[in-house]
Amino acid sequence: MSAANAASRVEHATTPAAVVETPTVPVVLQSVVTPGETILLVLRPSPLYIVLSSLGTLVASVVIGLVLAYSSQSAWSGWSEKQGAAFAAGLACARLAWAVLDWINHAYVLTDRRVIARRGILRTALYEAPLSRIQNTIVVQSLRERLCGLGTLGFATAGRGTFDAFWETVASPFEVHRKVLEAITRYGRK
Predict the structure, then answer these.
(1) Positive or negative, the Cα torsion across 171, 173, 177, 178?
(2) Residue-wise pLDDT tens for the chain (190 aa)?
(3) pTM, whole model, 2 decimals?
(4) Architecture of the domain defined by 23-45+107-188
(5) How far apart are CA 85 and CA 99, in angstroms?
């Protein structure tokens, strides 16, 4: 074997595609995942979740800012256009900051045993269901999620008439759904 062939084999073996990386479980879920459990998928909502979940408040902030700026021209108003704009900007920034905290506290994990969903800032909710108990899954796309290539996955367990948990605003929802179904078929139907 020539030196060039040997060098290309070594180079090929150390490329990033050849390295298999284990998904990192978010800190908020590390105490939930048990030793020996194989992590198949770790997700968070898309960063677009921050804007999409705040859209109503952002639109309201613009409207409030415009109303305050327009009304500042009246003699009865006690504020200026700048103060009205600053109030609207402060409202929008506060809502976006809350959405960032909410996004940080969302975490979704698929293991070889169960699906896990965690969410919440002040009041947290943790959902766990064994793969063997999941009876139905669903992919839902609101118009704004669909326009952004996002979607929400829902999970229903045996004996429930509704969906118990959701993985909200995930990227490539149909691909994620396919991976969940593969895990249920492989590990949950024993």
Answers:
(1) negative
(2) 444 444 444 444 444 444 445 567 777 777 788 888 889 999 999 999 999 999 999 999 999 999 988 888 887 878 788 888 899 999 999 999 999 999 999 999 999 999 999 999 999 999 999 999 998 999 999 999 999 999 999 999 877 778 988 999 999 999 999 999 999 999 877 6
(3) 0.77
(4) Roll (2.30)
(5) 21
